[in-house]
Amino acid sequence: MNILEPTLNPKKTYEYEYEGVVKIGRDMADLAESGVKLQCTFKITGVSIQTFLLQIYNMVFEEFNGIPGQSSFKASPNLTKRLTDELNRPFTFEYSKGQIGDIKTGGEVSNTIVNIVRGIVGFLHVTVKTTQRVYELNELGIHGVCHSAYAIEENAASKELYVTQIVDINDCHPKAAMYQGMALAEENKNSQQRGKNAIATVKYAYTVKSVEGGGLITKASALERHHFTPFNVKGGNCNLQATRNIVLLKETDTVGKPVTGQVKSRGNLMYKMEKSVAPIPVVMIKLNDPVSKIADLIKRLAQDNIYQLNSTSSSDVLALIQLLRASTNDDLESLWKQLSGNNEHRRWFLDTVVEVTDDRVLKFLANRFKAGDISANEAGQALLVAFNHLTAEVELVESAKEFLTIPFSKSHPLLWNTVVLSYGSLVYRACARETPCPVNTVQPLLDMANNGLAKKDDKDMVLALKALGNAGHPLSIKTIMKFLPGFSVKADSLSTWVQTVAVQSLRHLASRDPLSVQDITLTMFADRTLPTEIRMLASMILLETKPSVALISAVVELLLQEMDLQVASFTYSNLRAISRSRTPDNQHLSTACNIAVKVLAAKFGHLSYRYSKALHLDWFRDELLTGMSREFYVLRNGTSAIPTEIISKGKLYFIGRILQLTELGVRAEGLKELLTGRSEISEDFGAIDFATIMKILSDWQSFPKNKPLLSVYARVFGQEVSFLDLDLDVVQQILKSVTLTSSKENKIWNIIQHLQNGVSWHWTKPYLILETRFIQPTCLGLPVEISKYLSALTAITVNAKTVIKPTPKENLRELFNADISLQTDGFFGVAKDFFVFHGINTELFQSGAQLNSKTVMALPWKTDLKLNAKENNYELNFTPCKNTMELLSVQNALHTYGTAFCTKVEAKRVHYLKEYPLYYFLGYTHFSCQLEPVRSVNPVEKIKIQISIGPQNHKSELSQMTVTQLIQGTDTAPEPVISVRVLAISPNVKEVGYEAAAYYTPAKQRDDIELIVSEVAEEVNWKICADLSVQKIQAEAKAHFKWGAECQTYEVALKVSTAGITGPKPFVNAEINWGDVPSFMQLVKEYLPGMSYVMGFYQKHEENTEHEVSAMLVASTHEGFDVKVKIPELTVYQQEIPSPFEIVGVESDNSNIYHM
């Protein structure tokens, strides 16, 4: 028989039966599942040669919640009626040679209904090649343009073709899918190669019967499977299975002319996403009358969390956000008028309205900015969150530009910084969705940078460059190059401060345009006329582009000729750190760096930590697809002990993406310039120089005029959110606010005055930390969604009052001669709610699996502090808890799974725990850490802590007792350096507790330290005696510990020697000897063999000294060290253990001194 393409006869009417089922669960016995079923009958009638009418009737909607085999689908009359009302309307579609074309229906029909229709008529869409039996192609379908594999079999007897089609839903370009909230978490291909957290495929089967003029599809089935897990699908997963079955019931001649009514194009077969995404899937709430519901909910949440943290209501924050998203612009204005008069309600509204995430929040905030009815602080907080949570669309970026021109934005420097930086962040996220990204989105920032350059205004240039760094727009490179030394004549004359910001503004472009950034940074790194700091930053950005082996080789050749040891040390240590990385993004780069380090180690491996360094630590687990890294950079210049710049940043690796965590940077070029070379300050800036440094800072005339003393910035998720430049003006303001004399500008004086009158302060902060949604269609036209939400509610209440005798009148120095008492009580609490949803989510219904996790931390306090600075006496009293207090609580619940987990750490869980990490979340778990009052005959009224520093007028019993205890053998009791008493106070009962005293006796050849702890109670003699002796000449230290009755029961001695630190193989020795010790300390001998074996140590049985443990650490190479540990009857050892730090030598020709 001939292979014929599927077709429909325009003169015929075809009646089919349809059934579509979606189930979500674990696909394991005895585990609950959730699902929906759609059943209907539909007719297809020819309107013209290529246009056909679809009519749907007998619709039935059923839902499933339970255990397969024990539960069944149940009809849902309400949803059946609602679906029937919309599906009864006429739909038309174009069809030719097995291909679905334009689909049309009334404009009032929702996209959700049209997508269901796509799932129904999609059974007709099949590509049959008349000359091939097996073939592959990319073709349009409901999931997008996806890769398909076909196989065709013939049945000559029945004149039927059996067509099988496999579609890889993960390989679609374009893909009918929507990612929301993940723009700042870049995808990483290397990580995805190690495993996936989501896999989806669909198999279609068609029976095509030979008829006049072509082939008629008489049967069609589809089996679609989705596997999802928060970790790696290889380690257990949540499954979604969708099936579709369509059978031809009858074929008849068409009678009369079909009526289609007014219809308009709704697109082709590809699933169409709603512009406004379906409601938050983890919130089930009616959205009618949102204004009254929002006002009531805010008032209730505010009241519930004033004097405590109501963790049961913390999850209502998401319900509040959902209601706000259902509000109109007029609703938001009405709510502002209702709530802004109350400070608590006003704050709750401003903290949550920013989650509306579309043009409504922009209009609301623009009205506030123009009316000036919010403070600069409120405006900054609201705009920072709103811009960073706004849906990243180019149209919204255009609307957000308005804030760059509203005068209120410039009313406060910090507010203006927030506006500009946040706009840059919005551009970055918009460009993640638009390729190429329009230049008009970043144009305002380009203009700001150029204007700052023309005016030679460092502050304007820095702000604009930081915002351009946030934006990471590929078309900003040419503008940034105007500020890079070596690329522009004007740039060469700019301050190093501006140049460093310009270099760092390339950080996002390192991944978006790596080749251009590599050319720029390598050129700067190779230019030895540039400042040291600029070259080091250039090398850091260069390595962030993930350069090739060839490019790393070029860096190596440059380093071999490098004369600046700061540049050499920084770059070499960075290469060395990356060479040890195990994270997927450094998979290839670490290999190249490893080769480079072997070439460079002989020349630069000896450089000490007085030179610039980079440190990188990381871990990654393939079975979890999860990891973390932390990087630390210290940039120095010259021989000063003050670094020029310090940077600390980290990354989180999860499900094939990389999220940059908090990054902090401090640049101290101005401070270094101010303090370096002054004769009154020692080179290493010891504590003794602090007063001198404060005196220099008060001399503001000596400050650098063209650069800040200190620059500090903070970045979150790779976006700079704030920075502070401590320049001359700021320092003068700070000095005025902390002066010792009384004045209105003195902030400390004002705080003390308020404290004497008593203060009460309360603050709450609801915050949606994370909202990520991934939505893609199933073959039924129903959307499957994977969503994650993390919200936090923080509440703080503080009450405080101080009594100062005598009361200070004119100067803060009077406090040093006063008795001060401070009473304070309050509460601090944080509740975090984490939700994961996997299932079907539409505005009509939801079905799926949901993980709820709640973490609550609560810390109430009530204390009384008394101090006298002149006499160095300090006393702290706090009241112990009267009732059980839950300090930390963690709960996990996966819907439909049973459980028990309580504070005694017991749990009942479902099956398969040992197999996969995902299943640890099944069921319900509850971990709690509680503080319970001690049940005793004499209840404790309060706990008192007394601290005395230096000589005291009254000798304690403990001090007198030290005469016979001290190793000097003196007949006079020495004065303790510090003494501490911790006492429990009960009514009508003598104080009980502990008393400790520390003594320090310095000498020329050695220093002695003595610590004695004793119990304060009647008829007790339990004590701890510890002494430490540091031998300065022999380079060793000895410690002796005795405890028990009069320090005579147990005894342990420790000796550490560093005499072997000098030499070609530097080493450190340590010994522990003991007499009688508690039995639990003897367990070391039992556990050491097993622990050392697990850690990969070698073992050797031999007779060693009894009652002794000795250890030797030998620096065998620059890269690692050897360890040998001896216990009685066993020696364990390991060689060449990699060191997280380089073991480097002092820079001299003949020195073998090494430092860790």
UniProtKB/TrEMBL annotation:
Gene3D superfamilies: Lipovitellin, beta-sheet shell regions, chain A (2.30.230.10), Lipovitellin-phosvitin complex, chain A, domain 4 (2.20.80.10), Lipovitellin. Chain A, domain 3 (2.20.50.20), Vitellinogen, beta-sheet shell domain (2.20.90.10), Vitellinogen, superhelical (1.25.10.20). One of its GO terms (molecular function) is lipid transporter activity. SMART domains: DUF1943, DUF1944, LPD_N. InterPro entries: Lipid_transp_b-sht_shell, Lipovitellin_superhlx_dom, Vitellinogen_b-sht_N, Vitellinogen_b-sht_shell, Vitellinogen_b-sht_shell_sf, Vitellinogen_open_b-sht, Vitellinogen_open_b-sht_sub1, Vitellogenin/Apolipophorin. It comes from the Eukaryota. Keywords: Disulfide bond, Glycoprotein, Phosphoprotein, Signal, Storage protein. Pfam families: Vit_b-sht_shell, Vit_open_b-sht, Vitellogenin_N. Disulfide bonds join 146-172. PROSITE patterns: VITELLOGENIN. Residues 8-646 form the Vitellogenin domain. GO terms for biological process: cellular response to estrogen stimulus; response to estradiol. This is Vitellogenin domain-containing protein. It comes from Pygocentrus nattereri.
